[in-house]
Amino acid sequence: MTTTADVRADQDAFVSTGRVPGRVRRLVADSWQRSRRSGVDPERPAPRDDLSDNDLAGLRRQTPLSAAIPVVRQLLLSQDPQWVAALTDASGRLLWVDGNRRVRRAIGRAGFVEGAVWSEDCAGTNAPGTALATNRDVQVIGSEHWARPVQPWNCAAAPVHDADGRMLGVLDITGGPVVATSLAMQLVRATATAVEATVGNAAGRAAGPPAPTLRVLGSQGGTLVVDGSAHRLSGRHAEILLLLAEHPGGSPPTGWPCCSANRSCPA
Fold this sequence. Notes:
By secondary structure, the chain is an alpha+beta fold.
């Protein structure tokens, strides 16, 4: 069984020699290699934190993830757990960090604060950054973190996608021993699924139903399609709707042709 001391020793050796360690998980070893190539200092990582409060507020307003904040709070934070929950955007920037005050203060000293970027190339191996890099659920335990200041903590993260499969960001929890459990990973995974559903529903409401469409079919009348349902119209009713659709501000000019040709327009 690989211990925390084993992982720490493997990281020390890897930092010194660049040789891939044999006792750590493949996911972690691959991330350490990316972190080393990016030049992240394991002793003094420097997550980028270059946003003003106004800029951060603007990013929060723009992201579709804002619709899911109540869901995250209800599922992950309502019982005052021993962790913090965070949502990043697709660049790894922490848009929201909330939860246990003691944990939040402690990890804040390591730079895990709202507005900071925790992608691998800025902070090394960590659950949200590695979830972004791999597009998969990730749990990083203690000494598996690249940055030594974060090694007292555990984190579990899952990517969040929109309805088209594009990554919007990552949901993460960070805390003590409880976050190292399989139950914590399952909770994050389930909450990420709920976040995706909430974002999808919000996008659907914003888009609204498709516009009604009027199809005019020669002298046989027409069809009005509303919310996916087709309604047959008489020739006269179709002509009136087509007049209104093409000239909503008033009467058509003299000589406007009636429904003698196949036509289709938004009603």
